[in-house]
Amino acid sequence: MTSQKTESRPSSDAMALAEELRRSIGTFVRAIRQKTATGRSAPSETLGLLEREGAMSVAALAQRRSVTHQSMRVVVAQLMATGLVDRNPDPGDGRSWLVSLSDAGRAQLLRDRDVRAARIGQLLDATLTAAEQKRLRASVDLLDRISAAAGD
């Protein structure tokens, strides 16, 4: 007889909190991206993926982003035209190319993040007391723990 790990259904309290978090975090992220003009796009998501996971082929990018190879080729061509990615021969396969984040692409990602962080900082100062900011800081630790567990 084999034992199989089964996950129990979350409690109704956990489900309610999960929905509140999903809604709140989603609203927050969308508002910050909108107000800072750093919205999500195929190019920005591709740059982020290359930063997190390193150089990869167009096929691997397409698979990781769940898009067609043809669509990803168009995105990569746009990013190359603007100098945000580089394309180099794949050392493991001379017939293939690897796409990687260029220095300009890395700088663009950092600029966008700095703009978003500055806006969030302004909102924290304008909206929350020092005690509330301290409570929020503790919540960040909790969110980090949940994120780490989600990756397991």
Automatic annotation (TrEMBL):
A Pfam family matched in the record: MarR_2
Ranges for domain HTH marR-type: 33-133
Alphabetical list of SUPFAM superfamilies matching this protein: Winged helix' DNA-binding domain (SSF46785)
SMART domains assigned: HTH_MARR
Lineage top rank: taxon: Bacteria
Protein name: Helix-turn-helix domain-containing protein
Organism (species): Rhodanobacter caeni
